[in-house]
Amino acid sequence: MQQGSVIIRGVGSYLPRKILTNHDLASMVDTSDEWIRTRTGISQRHIADAHETCSDLAYVAAKSALENAQLKAQDIDLLVVATMTPDMICPSLAAILQAKLGLRKVMSFDINAACSGFLYALEVATRLLQNGNFYKRALVIGAEKMSSLIDWEDRSTCVLFGDAAGASVLEHTSTEQVGILDAILRADGSFSPGILYIPAGGSLHPATTDTVTQRQHFIKMNGRELFKTSVRLMGKVIEELLERNHLTKADIACLIPHQANLRIIQSLAQSIGLSMDRVFCNLEVTGNTSSASIPVAFTQAKSAHYFRSGDYIVLVAFGGGLTWGATLIKW
Ligand code: UT7
Fold it and tell me: What pLDDT, in 10s, does the model give residues 163-201?
């Protein structure tokens, strides 16, 4: 049986053109630039046009990742898309994207693990590519049109989110011990519902006139609870991942966390004793883009030379479910 590793051969991202600033939001709901910046670290977010679908965002990011990897659509053997905002409930966003990109008729499916979705997708694709016998290359995408789930009258959530897509091309290589080395992914459904959820539109509460008038198709969140829980769980999972790989925090050249809130990221860095100069942050200009947040940040961190060949990179995320996890990469 073939062994080896799974490397990230190319990355790409897409942020819609339209920018919504904190000042814009202050004219829509009872909030202020000062409140949003000091409580979240966010100054602006990108918002897709009404006609732009989530698969449109994913398409641009995927093309860019293929170009970066110097590969063609035909070279891809597997497509995994992390999203909680697919174009439709059915078909999957991945099936739509398979056709848009002109991939061969390869296995294509969605994963919904909210903001941890990209790390879940990365893990599933890595395991499928692992021995190189069945699949050689995968396209792994995190794409969200969060603006389609936002209640623009709810100041506690509408200031947080943005739209984006990020993509990675994964490839099996015969070289040992490089690329995606390890991951720990977790879920605990006993927190839900209540901490982060969209009450209606599923089989529990299908759409009715009442669900629409009661604004039940929008995202609801207990931000304070999520804040405390996320810092604790992300800190623990990073420590577990490092220990399992006989590494310490001193070995981390770059931490790329889910971009939800700068205070969460700072508390996390403090709790694991990592200095902020080794933590990549872009949420000031993107807001929280759920499963797109890590692949977009990764693409930007790579362009900004935040890590070099041989460096250890840790990705960490948390989100609705609850779901959370961390991934260890040797670049
Ligand atoms: O990717 C996973 C998804 N979600 C998250 O990661 C969110 C995690 N949580 C957070 O980021 C923070 O909890 C928030 C940014 C959502 C909220 O910050 P906080 O420091 O936890 O504020 P809070 O919820 O405790 O609210 C403090 C006050 C409240 O007023 P009172 O009750 O103290 O009078 C809120 O009503 O701030 C008020 N408030 C606002 N004020 C102005 C809530 N939202 C706003 C707003 N503008 N947009």
Answer: 999 999 999 999 989 999 999 999 999 876 678 999 999
Which residue's CA is the nearest one to ligand 1's atom 2? 319
- Is 5-177 in CATH node 3.20.20.70? no
DSSP state of 114: G
Give yes or no: 115 in active site.
yes
Whole-model pTM over 0.90 = yes
Mean pLDDT across the stretch 273-280?
Answer: 97
Token pair, residue 117, equals 């979705």
Pick the catalytic residue from 68, 172, 254, 258: 258
Q: Residue 172: which H helix or E strand, with range?
A: strand 163-173
Whether the CB-CB separation of 240 and 206 falls below 8 Å is answered with: no
pLDDT by residue (tens digit) across 244-261?
999 999 999 999 999 999
Domain 180-330, CATH among 3.90.190.20, 3.40.50.2300, 3.30.70.1560, 3.40.47.10: 3.40.47.10
Instruction: Give the distance (Å) from ligand 1 centre to CA of residue 30.
Output: 13
Site to substitute for ligand 1 among 25, 36, 39, most atoms within 8 A of C-beta: 39
